[in-house]
Amino acid sequence: MRSRLPRPLSIGLLAAALILAGCSRSARSTASATNSTVQPVEVVNVARRDLAEEVNLVGSVAANETAQIRAEIAGQIREILFEEGQHVTRGQVLVKIDDSELVSQLAQATASFRLAELNLERTENLAKSNLISQADADAVRSEYASSKAAVAILRTRLAKTELKAPFDGVTGSREVSVGDYVSTSTGTPTITTINDLSRLKIEFQVPERYLSQVRPGSAFKVQARTEGVRTEIAGEVYFVSAVIDRATRSSEVKGYLLNPPEQIRPGMFANVVLVLTVHPRVLTVPEGAILVTPRGAQVIAVVKKDGADVAEFVPVTLGLRSRGVVEIQPDDASRVTEGTPVVAAGVGSLILYAGARVEPRPQHREFAAGN
């Protein structure tokens, strides 16, 4: 006895078969269209350039030299011989402390010294004739030496009544006035501060992981956050501390700023870009040109094949990255060289495969590396 499918079921199977056949034809036509389609791509030429490994830090600007002027001897201020913010030279007298008492003491000591000098002269003449004992002669000589030392001490103390600039610089604010009494005790206010602005320094902390790459002579760039300073200021390291701070795990580094503008002042905050190492003349591409796959990094080179531009996948090893570009080392140096065009953007989203036809177009300027 022959069995037959119900009519509605047979119609459903027929419809399904027709749908599958249509999908198969559609897939084949889509694949054919994809194979024949030329994919527009943005390209950029592989370039050689010096690439630097850098680290961004923060630092503070400091004067070349800074000195706080304090009294070395107690007394009343008699004269103030400088103005706040004045340029002074080394050895210039800034403050005069009352010295009347010391002048009198020096006159007294000088008189005693002259008497001791005369006594010594007489004693030496008597000693030559053996008319005086050796003990008396030694006592006179000692008195002469003591008087001479007393005069020297008073002259030194008298010189300290004149406070002088230790180096060329600019004075700060004045903290005392004529008539104030100053002393050498702890807590005595500073009379003024002198800053040598002939050369500026910058101080910053470098994490311990980078210290092996930092040494005197290392270059850096500084950008101060102040109005009117738009350019980077070059600098050079001159000091690297031998000690690492346990709290921050970093070490103090100091450097000189080369030709800083007048707007830069000691105490300013600044961004520091420290150059750790430089790779000269290496092959570079934009970061957007790197295709990361489970088998490693690749770039998509555009090569000529049968008169058409086609895509070629080239494995590369990545190196330094800096400001939107990355160093590459192709596994086969003959496949990617300086000037080789590579796909610069969208490498992870474009429908590309080895041998696919492409239409190279210049990369949009606003998306170029470094913008």
What does this structure look like?
With 371 residues, this protein is α+β, with helices and mostly antiparallel strands. The protein folds into four domains: 38-48 and 281-367, conserved putative lor/sdh protein from methanococcus maripaludis s2 fold; 55-64 and 198-279, Efflux pump adaptor protein, beta barrel domain (Elongation Factor Tu (Ef-tu), domain 3, Beta Barrel), CATH 2.40.30.170; 71-96 and 164-190, RNA polymerase II/Efflux pump adaptor protein, barrel-sandwich hybrid domain (OB fold (Dihydrolipoamide Acetyltransferase, E2P), Beta Barrel); 99-160, Helix hairpin bin (Helix Hairpins, Orthogonal Bundle). The chain contains three helices and 19 strands. The chain has helices at 7-36, 100-128, 134-159; strands spanning 39-45, 47-69, 75-80, 87-88, 93-97, 162-164, 169-171, 181-182, 192-207, 219-224, 233-240, 250-257, 269-286, 291-293, 296-305, 308-322, 325-330, 341-343, 358-362. Strands 2-9-12-11-10-13 form a six-stranded antiparallel barrel. Strands 6-5-3-8 form a four-stranded antiparallel β-sheet, with no helix packed on it. Strands 18-1-19 form a three-stranded mixed β-sheet, with no helix packed on it. A hairpin with a 2-residue loop joins strand 15 (296-305) and strand 16 (308-322). The protein is elongated and about 125 Å long. It starts with 6 loop residues before the first helix and ends in a 9-residue tail after the last strand. Mean pLDDT is 85; it is low at 1-35.
